[in-house]
């Protein structure tokens, strides 16, 4: 072991810290590159029908976009997803809060929320189809039923258990009424879990959207997946799924951005 | 002035019912500093929460300036053992939290918070979040928040018991200093005999099972006081007396 002078050791410690941070921020992109590279290699080496190489998928995507086959479906899907998710989030926040604060509501609705939370929403799709036909309403119903119940449950927990009892007492001692306790203590305390739930909901809603559209097989990205799938056009299927993944990552990033703005005090 | 007469408090119902406070009677005079000490389970924290209006009581009277306590009020401010700071608010916003609830405009609130931050020795930390501060500094925020209300009565629930020894001594002196200027009435719960005697005009000793007033001692030292009194014979005598009583209660278990 070599004996280094103190400044030299400090410098190398600083250097290694910088290196560590660099490595950490590079991990994601590098991992992505390796994954895509492997995908490309395996796809080329074995010529598997169910795994076309990445480059082919991208080329196909460009082709589909140029032919205008994706844009309409994409916008259509995103609109349905936005409406379904927004309705779910608002309903879940309201019901979650009511269940957290009124035991009677909790007892009355809890069992239904749990029952529908366990049921896979795709199992309900035929019911919705019978009710609403091959329509946008059916798609919305699948989206909402796939994300609203877990969000209700999580929001209830968030509002019930996040706030420290001592903080609530403090607020009351300083003159806060019920509404102010909620505003200044309960909501801020619940914010981290609320945002975690909103993120979870995005993923669920997206899955619901694709599932619903596949089932109805008429419109949206899911409809395209269904069509190309039945034609055994796996390159196109992958191209669409690539779009879905990019949407998911973008939405998740947006929610995280909002989360970080609101819960900055936790860092 | 606080007047407590035959205050009784139970927890639970039916056969589970437990009496926490049994016919507790005492008064706190205008500008008086009353220390309250007792073994765990004597109901001292419950007593403080009843005075704060946070917990209802079952029997007797709790009067402040002749009016029965029915809930929290602007005449009282509480300092908590756990500090109870809002972790998402800055030091300044925590200090002025009560003023905000009162509807004081933001600019006046901020000015007042800055004054109080300076008073308790937190100048320059106004925009910090509580968790960036040490325990002693956090409790200074708690104290400043209470003082911001300009209360007639300061209710302090073991405010220094989670601080380390040195910090506690500094905080005791600072509290005496501030109290010397504001001269509010103080009810100060503690489990430290030295703290009770050093700070209080009187020391109320509570017994347990159920909680009751065992004795109220006059502390004869003049104000303003400093730590020097700790070495006096009178201080030792009071301390020994409290210890005899408290040890006796421990052995009863």
Brief rundown of the structure:
The complex is a heterodimer of chains A (267) and B (253). Chain A has 267 residues and is mainly α.
Structural class of chain A: mainly alpha
Q: What is the CATH T-level topology of the largest domain in chain A? A: MetI-like fold
The gross shape of chain B turns out to be: globular
Indicate the structural class of chain B. Answer: alpha/beta
If classified by CATH, what would the architecture of the domain at 1-75 and 189-253 in chain B be?
3-Layer(aba) Sandwich
For this structure, the quaternary state is heterodimer
Low-confidence regions of chain B:
none
Question: Biggest β-sheet of chain A: count, sense, barrel?
Answer: none
Q: Summarize the helix and strand pattern of chain B as letters.
A: EEEHEEEHHHHEHEHEEH
List the strand order in the largest sheet of chain B. Answer: 6-7-8-3-9-10
Number of helices of chain A: 10
Overall number of strands of chain B: 10
Would you identify the CATH H-level superfamily of the largest domain in chain A? MetI-like
Count of DSSP-assigned helices of chain B = 8
Low-pLDDT ranges of chain A: none
The averaged pLDDT of chain B comes out at 94
> What is the straight-line distance between the termini of chain B?
35 Å
- Give the class-level CATH name of the largest domain in chain A: Mainly Alpha
CATH class of the domain at 1-75 and 189-253 in chain B: Alpha Beta
Percent of residues in beta strands of chain B = 15-25%
């Amino acid at each position: 072991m070599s004996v280094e002078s103190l400044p030299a050791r400090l410098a190398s410690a600083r250097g290694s810290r910088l290196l560590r941070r660099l490595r950490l921020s590079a991990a994601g992109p590098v991992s992505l590159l390796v994954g895509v590279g492997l995908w490309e290699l395996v796809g080329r080496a074995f010529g598997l029908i169910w795994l076309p190489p990445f480059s082919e998928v991208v080329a196909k995507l460009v082709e589909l976009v140029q032919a205008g086959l994706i844009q309409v479906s994409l916008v259509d899907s995103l609109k349905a997803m936005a409406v379904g998710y927004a309705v779910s989030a608002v309903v879940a926040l309201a019901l979650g809060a009511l269940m957290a604060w009124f035991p009677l509501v909790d007892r009355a609705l809890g069992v239904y929320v749990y029952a529908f939370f366990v049921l896979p929403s795709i199992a309900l799709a035929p019911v919705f189809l019978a009710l609403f036909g091959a329509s946008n309403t059916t798609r919305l119903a699948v989206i909402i039923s796939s994300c609203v119940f877990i969000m209700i449950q999580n929001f209830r927990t968030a509002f019930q258990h996040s706030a420290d009892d001592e903080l609530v007492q403090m607020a009351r001692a300083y003159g806060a009424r019920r509404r102010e306790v909620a505003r200044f203590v309960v909501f801020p305390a619940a914010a981290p879990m609320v945002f975690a739930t909103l993120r979870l909901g995005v993923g669920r809603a997206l899955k619901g959207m694709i599932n619903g559209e596949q089932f109805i097989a008429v419109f949206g990205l899911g409809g395209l997946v269904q069509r190309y799938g039945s034609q055994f056009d796996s390159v196109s299927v992958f191209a669409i799924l690539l779009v879905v993944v990019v949407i998911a990552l973008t939405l998740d990033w947006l929610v995280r951005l909002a989360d970080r703005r609101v819960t900055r005090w936790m860092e | 002035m606080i007047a407590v007469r035959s205050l009784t408090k139970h927890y639970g119902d039916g056969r589970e019912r437990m009496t926490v406070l049994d016919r507790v009677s005492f008064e706190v005079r205008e500008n008086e500093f009353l220390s309250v000490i007792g073994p765990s389970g004597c109901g001292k924290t419950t007593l403080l929460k009843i005075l704060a209006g946070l917990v209802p009581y079952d029997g007797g009277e709790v009067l402040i300036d002749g009016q029965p306590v029915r809930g929290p009020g602007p005449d009282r401010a509480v300092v908590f053992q756990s500090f109870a700071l809002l972790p998402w608010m800055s030091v300044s916003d925590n200090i002025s939290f009560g003023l905000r609830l009162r509807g004081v405009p933001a600019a006046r609130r901020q000015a007042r918070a800055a004054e109080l931050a300076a008073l308790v020795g937190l100048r320059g930390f106004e925009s910090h979040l509580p968790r960036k501060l040490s325990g002693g500094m956090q409790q200074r925020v708690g104290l400043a928040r209470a003082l911001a209300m300009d209360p007639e009565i300061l209710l302090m629930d073991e405010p220094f018991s989670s601080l380390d020894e040195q910090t506690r001594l500094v905080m005791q002196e600072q509290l005496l200093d501030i109290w010397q200027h504001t001269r509010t009435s103080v009810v100060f719960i503690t489990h430290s005999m030295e703290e009770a005697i050093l700070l209080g005009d009187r020391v109320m000793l509570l017994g347990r099972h159920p909680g009751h007033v065992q004795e109220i001692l006059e502390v004869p030292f003049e104000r303003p006081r400093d730590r020097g009194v700790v070495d006096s014979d009178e201080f030792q005598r009071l301390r020994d007396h409290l210890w005899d009583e408290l040890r006796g209660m421990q052995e009863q278990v």
